[in-house]
Design goal:
By secondary structure, this protein is of the alpha/beta class. The protein has five helices and five strands, in the order βαβαβαβαβα. The protein has one domain: Alpha/beta knot, CATH 3.40.1280. InterPro entries: Alpha/beta_knot_MTases, RlmH-like, tRNA_m1G_MTases_N.
């Protein structure tokens, strides 16, 4: 089993890097985990809608280039389906049982994901109606993946 997280932008904050490293280490006893960073585009505050689409398309091309053809793709998007931690764990387990041995999660940049990336995704997932910085979303996703594997193995986890 393998999980790839493809994310736009690099982590700069030391505390976020430490959290990512900690959860990646914890997950390594359950699954092979890979984090792939693609570069982000400059996105000034006063962009037109057309300029925003160009940024998302360029970032999307980089994301799509890193996706394995056999990967089951879950895009993180605010308009995606919200799930409880238990449902998330059950859904992951069902994917693995059905032979989806490679799952890729995609975290977009500050403007979100391009239409092309959303079309490639097998499903979209939302962690909240709130907006989170994409750098922090990496930590939240890793924590929920770790929690999901603990749930799948009937190991104790914080409720």
């Amino acid at each position: 089993m393998k999980i790839t997280i493809i994310t736009v932008g690099k982590l700069k904050e030391k505390y976020l890097k430490q959290a990512v490293d900690e959860y990646a280490k914890r997950l390594s006893s359950y699954v092979k985990i890979e984090i792939v960073e693609v570069s982000d585009e400059k996105a000034p505050e006063n962009m037109t809608e057309g300029e925003k689409e160009i940024v998302k398309r360029k970032e999307g091309e980089r994301i799509l280039a890193k996706l394995a053809p056999d990967a089951y793709v879950i895009a993180l998007a605010i308009e995606g389906k919200m799930k409880s931690s238990e449902t998330f764990a059950t859904n992951l387990e069902q994917l693995f049982i059905r032979g989806k041995s490679h799952i890729a999660f995609i975290i977009g940049g500050s403007l979100g994901l391009s239409d092309e990336v959303m079309k490639r995704a097998n499903e979209s997932l939302s962690f909240s109606k709130m907006t989170f910085p994409h750098q922090l979303m990496r930590v939240i996703l890793l924590e929920q993946l770790y929690r999901a594997f603990r749930i799948m193995r009937n190991e104790p986890y914080h409720k």
